[in-house]
């Protein structure tokens, strides 16, 4: 699970009317294109580093207002130089293998943030950037970008919303380059299609998505592509009290327990038969209060809590950042995806609310 630490804001730079960069008074190693998880009184979100290690004097994240976005608007309205925010990271794999790679970069809106860090870190190779925005006033880092490399600007106000066919005409000269794509979901979908039409193989396309879709648009718990982890409060308690290896020695073949007794991988078919299609009750301890919530079939725990009008911590909603982690006190859940929690986290009872679906009729978790 990510560890948060206080970070002082050294400076706040207004980039556009809707975007601010936070310069951090912190020294840590990171790779270009990675992100930090920022925790605020309004919640926690992931924000990409727009700085480059070894190039910029201090790390910097850039935050753009999202309509209705509690955290982005809180940061833009309330954070000033000298303030302190809790942050964890850096994390993420949206980063080049070499600073000498030949790159084709496609960004939409705030998707320029990690790509800016990548651009500033490159030493050799050939780079091309296509950057889509609503209008000229929406372009983040405009002057800096124009000094660094040639940019093909796509402005909706002049050319309409980009289509796959229109973007393909700009990409056909670069079928052998490694493509990096970042932006809102709609832009990413169009850009990926355009790259395929231009002959860029899928193996050479790397994507970082912002403004993730609604819970209903994400893979369901019983998706054929899912691979899950079963996490049980009972097995965790047994694992913490048993002698090393005792559970592994006593478990029947195929039992839902690994050598730690706290989790096990489940094949998609097994998950489809047991999770995602059942109703349950979630008992959630949050902000000093206990809430008993109906858990409808097909929903993730985080969505259940948010739909009840509560404000739990979360960020990426993809099982990658750990901002939504809570402790499982009773019951059993399946985690549809997990790219952050490790054995010691499971031993302490942590699960990811954004990926949890119920395997028992009742589940109790705490954020305390």
From TrEMBL:
Domain 2Fe-2S ferredoxin-type residue range list: 282-368
SUPFAM superfamilies associated with the record: 2Fe-2S ferredoxin-like, Ferredoxin reductase-like, C-terminal NADP-linked domain, Riboflavin synthase domain-like
Sequence intervals crossing the membrane: none
InterPro entries per UniProt: 2Fe-2S_ferredoxin-like_sf (IPR036010), 2Fe-2S_ferredoxin-type (IPR001041), 2Fe2S_fd_BS (IPR006058), Beta-grasp_dom_sf (IPR012675), Cbr1-like_FAD-bd_dom (IPR008333), FAD-bd_FR_type (IPR017927), FNR_nucleotide-bd (IPR039261), MRET (IPR050415)
Keywords from the UniProt entry: 2Fe-2S, FAD, Flavoprotein, Iron, Iron-sulfur, Metal-binding, Oxidoreductase
Domain (FAD-binding FR-type): residue spans on this chain: 2-97
Pfam families linked: FAD_binding_6 (PF00970), Fer2 (PF00111), NAD_binding_1 (PF00175)
Cofactor(s) needed for function: FAD
PROSITE patterns: 2FE2S_FER_1, 2FE2S_FER_2, FAD_FR
PANTHER family, sorted: 1,2-PHENYLACETYL-COA EPOXIDASE, SUBUNIT E, NADH OXIDOREDUCTASE HCR
Protein name per UniProt: Ferredoxin--NADP reductase
Organism whose genome encodes this protein: Actinoplanes flavus
